[in-house]
Amino acid sequence: MTKTNAYQEITSSVYPLADYLHSVLTLLDDLLKRILLIKGGAMGSPFTMVLANIYMLEWAQKLIQYQNRHHEIYGRYIDDVFMTTNSSKEDILKELDETIKTDSNATITTTISQSLEYLDVTIENNNGNLKISIYHKSASEPYILPYESDHPRHVHANIIYTALVRAGRSCSNMGDFDMERLSTEMILLVNGYPPKFIQHHIKKFFVKYDSMSVWTELNSEVYQQLRNMLLYRPTRRENKTQISSLGQLIGKTKNYEHKDQIYIYYTF
Q1: pLDDT digit string (tens) for 206-240?
Q2: Are 191 and 143 in contact (CB under 8 A)?
Q3: In 3D, which of 118, 6, 102, 7 has the Cα closest to residue 60?
């Protein structure tokens, strides 16, 4: 077999292309060794997150189908699962054991109760109705960005707005929401926020969502309307994704809107 010039150029060490290929192969070889030798991965890695979601979706299929058959809730965030059930404790533990058997490497820590903490909320079964409120760790301290910091004022204002949005989304009961609002005000005062500044931005929040009676009259009906608006309001990431998709669509439209026309350019 005759060696061509192209073959000699690629394999010869005197050419930059050969050096480049050698570097790539060395890097890939190192990465493959890491993948083969290391079990697990860093949860902060985007690639690990994708793999974890794929694995959990496949691993929990029997459990998901069980919940669907019994018209119950199944929710999951990465590897934290929340479920409702009217089955006996023995039956649901048996179903969990069957799920564990699908992979000997998987382990489950189970909590079964009328009330439990899931992520940053407390979920309570209140006579068949789920009551949700914000969960505060006992070790947490009331410290936020001090008002006297050198940050722009809109940053301090956004802390108030974000705290109220979080409370509205997380609290199913208006009384719990109002307690969160009062707690937020106390934390703000402790960190040097002027009362007028606090009241101004709290009022601004309720005016924005046309729900002043929640603040002034503790109106439960208006609170549920406010909560629905906050729950179904797109997040910043969702807005960014929509804008990006719209930009790509506009770009494609611009590329093809004059495809049947010929443009002649003159150099004089």
Answers
A1: 999 999 999 999 999 999 999 999 998 877 777 77
A2: yes
A3: 102
- Does residue 17 contact residue 10 with C-beta atoms inside 8 Å? yes
Residue type, position 14, single letter: V
Q: Do residues 55 and 47 lie in contact, with contact meaning Cβ atoms separated by under 8 Å?
A: no
Residues 6+ apart with CB under 8 A from 41: 47, 48, 51
Q: Which tokens is 153 given?
A: 């004022």
**Residue 231 is encoded by which pair of tokens?**
């729950």
Q: Which range, 17-31, 217-231, 235-249, is most confident?
A: 217-231
Burial of 35 (0-12, 13-18, 19+ CB in 10 A): exposed
- Residue ranges of alpha helices (H) inside the chain are 5-11, 16-37, 46-59, 61-69, 89-100, 153-170, 174-190, 195-208, 212-216, 220-231, 236-256
Answer yes or no: are the C-beta atoms of 18 and 12 closer than 8 Å: yes
Q: CB-side exposure of 226: number of CA atoms within 13 Å?
A: 30
> How do the domains of the chain map onto residue ranges?
41-104, 153-231
Taking the model in full, what pTM does it have? Answer: 0.69
**C-alpha to C-alpha distance for 144 and 162, rounded to whole angstroms:** 12
